[in-house]
Design brief:
Layout (H helix, E strand, L loop, with lengths): L4 E6 L2 H13 L3 E6 L8 E2 L21 E3 L7 H15 L4 E5 L4 E2 L8 H29 L3 E5 L15 H20 L6 E7 L5 H14 L8 E5 L2 E3 L1
Parallel strand pairs: 1-2, 1-5, 2-4, 5-7, 7-8, 8-9
Antiparallel strand pairs: 3-6, 9-10
Helix pairs in contact: 1-5, 2-3, 3-4
Length: about 240
Amino acid sequence: MSRGILIAGNESVILNAIEAEAGRRADRYAVAVIKNRLSGDISKPMVQDENQDSPRATDNKPKEKRISLDWNPGSPISARTLILAAENRLGQINEAVIVCAPPSIRSAVADINFADIEVLVNDHIKSWFCLLKEITNRFREKKEGSLALVFPENSATGNKDDAYDLFGSAALASFRAIAQEILAASPAEPYLTHGFSGIYSGDEMGFAGFIFKHIEEKNQRNAGKLFKYGKSGFFR
Protein backbone atom coordinates (compact mmCIF):
# COMPACT_ATOMS: atom_id res chain seq x y z
CA MET A 1 0.00 0.00 0.00
CA SER A 2 1.29 3.47 -0.87
CA ARG A 3 2.45 5.97 1.72
CA GLY A 4 -0.34 8.06 3.27
CA ILE A 5 0.50 11.65 4.23
CA LEU A 6 -2.01 14.01 5.87
CA ILE A 7 -1.12 17.71 5.97
CA ALA A 8 -3.24 20.15 7.95
CA GLY A 9 -2.55 23.79 8.70
CA ASN A 10 -3.05 27.46 8.13
CA GLU A 11 -3.16 28.91 4.64
CA SER A 12 0.48 30.05 4.31
CA VAL A 13 3.67 29.84 2.28
CA ILE A 14 5.16 27.22 4.63
CA LEU A 15 2.08 25.02 4.13
CA ASN A 16 2.56 25.34 0.35
CA ALA A 17 6.22 24.35 0.69
CA ILE A 18 5.36 21.29 2.76
CA GLU A 19 2.76 20.30 0.16
CA ALA A 20 5.33 20.67 -2.61
CA GLU A 21 7.79 18.49 -0.72
CA ALA A 22 5.12 15.86 -0.03
CA GLY A 23 4.33 15.81 -3.75
CA ARG A 24 7.96 14.95 -4.46
CA ARG A 25 7.99 12.06 -2.02
CA ALA A 26 4.58 10.37 -2.25
CA ASP A 27 2.09 9.26 -4.88
CA ARG A 28 -0.73 11.07 -3.12
CA TYR A 29 -1.27 13.20 -0.03
CA ALA A 30 -4.32 14.75 1.68
CA VAL A 31 -4.59 18.39 2.74
CA ALA A 32 -6.92 20.27 5.08
CA VAL A 33 -6.48 24.04 5.17
CA ILE A 34 -7.56 26.67 7.68
CA LYS A 35 -8.48 29.70 5.61
CA ASN A 36 -7.71 33.18 6.94
CA ARG A 37 -11.08 34.57 8.05
CA LEU A 38 -9.73 37.44 10.17
CA SER A 39 -10.56 41.04 9.33
CA GLY A 40 -9.29 42.55 6.07
CA ASP A 41 -6.18 44.68 5.91
CA ILE A 42 -4.99 44.19 9.49
CA SER A 43 -4.63 40.44 9.05
CA LYS A 44 -1.18 39.19 8.01
CA PRO A 45 0.50 35.78 7.89
CA MET A 46 2.41 34.69 11.00
CA VAL A 47 5.59 34.67 8.91
CA GLN A 48 5.45 37.40 6.30
CA ASP A 49 5.37 36.04 2.76
CA GLU A 50 7.88 38.42 1.20
CA ASN A 51 9.41 35.92 -1.24
CA GLN A 52 7.43 36.13 -4.50
CA ASP A 53 9.04 32.91 -5.73
CA SER A 54 7.76 30.86 -2.82
CA PRO A 55 6.08 27.58 -3.84
CA ARG A 56 2.40 27.37 -4.54
CA ALA A 57 0.30 24.40 -3.53
CA THR A 58 0.11 23.05 -7.09
CA ASP A 59 3.64 23.79 -8.35
CA ASN A 60 5.82 21.04 -9.87
CA LYS A 61 3.47 18.13 -9.29
CA PRO A 62 0.37 16.59 -10.93
CA LYS A 63 -2.86 17.93 -9.46
CA GLU A 64 -4.18 14.40 -8.97
CA LYS A 65 -1.62 13.90 -6.20
CA ARG A 66 -3.44 16.41 -4.00
CA ILE A 67 -6.56 15.28 -2.14
CA SER A 68 -8.35 18.28 -0.67
CA LEU A 69 -10.39 17.56 2.47
CA ASP A 70 -13.12 19.64 4.08
CA TRP A 71 -12.53 20.77 7.66
CA ASN A 72 -14.51 22.97 10.02
CA PRO A 73 -11.61 23.82 12.37
CA GLY A 74 -13.58 24.55 15.53
CA SER A 75 -15.65 21.36 15.44
CA PRO A 76 -14.62 18.17 17.31
CA ILE A 77 -16.93 16.16 15.04
CA SER A 78 -15.28 17.65 11.95
CA ALA A 79 -11.84 16.74 13.29
CA ARG A 80 -12.91 13.12 13.69
CA THR A 81 -14.52 13.13 10.24
CA LEU A 82 -11.33 14.58 8.75
CA ILE A 83 -9.23 11.66 10.03
CA LEU A 84 -11.73 9.12 8.70
CA ALA A 85 -11.91 10.89 5.33
CA ALA A 86 -8.11 10.96 5.04
CA GLU A 87 -7.90 7.23 5.80
CA ASN A 88 -10.66 6.44 3.30
CA ARG A 89 -9.06 8.46 0.52
CA LEU A 90 -5.43 7.48 1.21
CA GLY A 91 -5.99 3.95 2.47
CA GLN A 92 -4.07 4.77 5.63
CA ILE A 93 -2.35 7.66 7.42
CA ASN A 94 1.33 6.92 7.97
CA GLU A 95 2.41 10.50 8.58
CA ALA A 96 0.57 13.61 9.77
CA VAL A 97 2.21 17.02 9.37
CA ILE A 98 0.43 19.73 11.37
CA VAL A 99 1.37 23.31 10.49
CA CYS A 100 0.57 26.22 12.81
CA ALA A 101 1.38 29.48 11.01
CA PRO A 102 -1.59 31.65 12.01
CA PRO A 103 -2.32 35.13 10.70
CA SER A 104 -1.72 38.04 13.03
CA ILE A 105 -3.80 41.03 14.01
CA ARG A 106 -2.01 44.06 15.35
CA SER A 107 -4.63 46.03 17.19
CA ALA A 108 -5.19 47.88 20.43
CA VAL A 109 -7.41 45.96 22.82
CA ALA A 110 -10.08 48.65 22.59
CA ASP A 111 -10.25 48.21 18.81
CA ILE A 112 -10.61 44.44 18.68
CA ASN A 113 -13.44 43.13 16.54
CA PHE A 114 -15.52 40.61 18.52
CA ALA A 115 -16.05 38.52 15.39
CA ASP A 116 -12.27 38.16 15.14
CA ILE A 117 -12.13 36.85 18.70
CA GLU A 118 -14.52 34.06 17.73
CA VAL A 119 -12.37 33.23 14.69
CA LEU A 120 -9.20 33.24 16.80
CA VAL A 121 -10.61 30.85 19.39
CA ASN A 122 -12.35 28.45 16.99
CA ASP A 123 -9.98 28.39 14.01
CA HIS A 124 -6.58 28.99 15.57
CA ILE A 125 -6.79 27.60 19.13
CA LYS A 126 -9.66 25.13 19.55
CA SER A 127 -8.94 23.52 16.16
CA TRP A 128 -5.52 22.18 17.23
CA PHE A 129 -6.83 20.61 20.42
CA CYS A 130 -9.62 18.86 18.49
CA LEU A 131 -7.46 17.65 15.62
CA LEU A 132 -4.43 16.58 17.66
CA LYS A 133 -6.67 14.66 20.05
CA GLU A 134 -8.05 12.66 17.11
CA ILE A 135 -4.68 12.10 15.42
CA THR A 136 -2.89 10.96 18.57
CA ASN A 137 -5.75 8.66 19.52
CA ARG A 138 -5.72 7.12 16.03
CA PHE A 139 -1.96 6.54 16.00
CA ARG A 140 -2.17 5.08 19.50
CA GLU A 141 -4.87 2.65 18.38
CA LYS A 142 -2.80 1.62 15.35
CA LYS A 143 0.39 1.48 17.44
CA GLU A 144 2.28 3.23 14.66
CA GLY A 145 2.56 6.50 12.76
CA SER A 146 4.64 9.64 12.58
CA LEU A 147 3.42 13.04 13.77
CA ALA A 148 5.23 16.28 12.89
CA LEU A 149 4.31 19.51 14.70
CA VAL A 150 5.48 22.57 12.75
CA PHE A 151 5.42 26.19 13.90
CA PRO A 152 7.48 29.38 13.48
CA GLU A 153 9.89 30.56 16.15
CA ASN A 154 8.29 34.00 16.40
CA SER A 155 5.26 35.90 15.20
CA ALA A 156 5.36 38.10 12.11
CA THR A 157 7.59 41.12 12.34
CA GLY A 158 6.10 44.58 12.13
CA ASN A 159 7.17 48.19 12.20
CA LYS A 160 8.34 49.63 15.50
CA ASP A 161 5.18 51.76 15.81
CA ASP A 162 2.80 48.86 15.11
CA ALA A 163 0.48 47.57 17.82
CA TYR A 164 1.38 44.27 19.48
CA ASP A 165 0.32 41.12 17.64
CA LEU A 166 -2.36 39.97 20.07
CA PHE A 167 -3.92 37.31 17.86
CA GLY A 168 -1.02 35.56 16.15
CA SER A 169 1.00 35.45 19.36
CA ALA A 170 -1.92 33.98 21.33
CA ALA A 171 -2.53 31.29 18.70
CA LEU A 172 1.16 30.41 18.49
CA ALA A 173 1.52 30.22 22.29
CA SER A 174 -1.46 27.86 22.49
CA PHE A 175 -0.09 25.56 19.80
CA ARG A 176 3.39 25.59 21.35
CA ALA A 177 1.90 24.52 24.71
CA ILE A 178 0.04 21.52 23.28
CA ALA A 179 3.06 20.61 21.13
CA GLN A 180 5.30 20.58 24.20
CA GLU A 181 2.90 18.27 26.04
CA ILE A 182 2.71 15.84 23.10
CA LEU A 183 6.49 15.90 22.60
CA ALA A 184 7.10 15.24 26.31
CA ALA A 185 4.82 12.19 26.20
CA SER A 186 6.22 10.89 22.90
CA PRO A 187 8.92 8.48 24.21
CA ALA A 188 6.21 6.39 25.90
CA GLU A 189 3.93 6.29 22.85
CA PRO A 190 3.89 3.62 20.10
CA TYR A 191 4.17 6.32 17.41
CA LEU A 192 6.85 8.93 16.71
CA THR A 193 6.41 12.65 17.31
CA HIS A 194 8.84 15.36 16.21
CA GLY A 195 8.60 19.12 16.61
CA PHE A 196 9.96 21.58 14.03
CA SER A 197 10.43 25.30 14.55
CA GLY A 198 12.81 28.10 13.67
CA ILE A 199 13.29 31.08 11.36
CA TYR A 200 12.64 30.05 7.78
CA SER A 201 11.09 33.03 5.93
CA GLY A 202 12.48 32.98 2.40
CA ASP A 203 13.74 29.40 2.82
CA GLU A 204 10.45 27.54 3.17
CA MET A 205 11.48 24.76 0.77
CA GLY A 206 14.67 24.15 2.73
CA PHE A 207 12.65 23.90 5.94
CA ALA A 208 10.13 21.53 4.31
CA GLY A 209 12.94 19.26 3.12
CA PHE A 210 14.47 19.33 6.61
CA ILE A 211 11.14 18.22 8.11
CA PHE A 212 10.65 15.28 5.76
CA LYS A 213 14.27 14.19 6.12
CA HIS A 214 13.73 13.65 9.85
CA ILE A 215 10.30 12.06 9.38
CA GLU A 216 11.71 9.51 6.94
CA GLU A 217 14.63 8.57 9.20
CA LYS A 218 12.15 7.09 11.71
CA ASN A 219 14.78 7.37 14.41
CA GLN A 220 13.30 6.30 17.74
CA ARG A 221 16.07 8.14 19.59
CA ASN A 222 14.65 11.40 18.25
CA ALA A 223 11.15 10.78 19.65
CA GLY A 224 9.89 13.90 21.36
CA LYS A 225 12.66 16.18 20.11
CA LEU A 226 12.09 19.74 18.90
CA PHE A 227 14.31 20.48 15.91
CA LYS A 228 15.05 24.12 15.12
CA TYR A 229 15.90 25.51 11.72
CA GLY A 230 17.53 28.78 10.72
CA LYS A 231 18.81 30.52 7.61
CA SER A 232 22.41 29.95 8.64
CA GLY A 233 21.78 26.22 8.97
CA PHE A 234 19.86 23.90 11.23
CA PHE A 235 20.43 23.06 14.83
CA ARG A 236 18.87 21.17 17.71
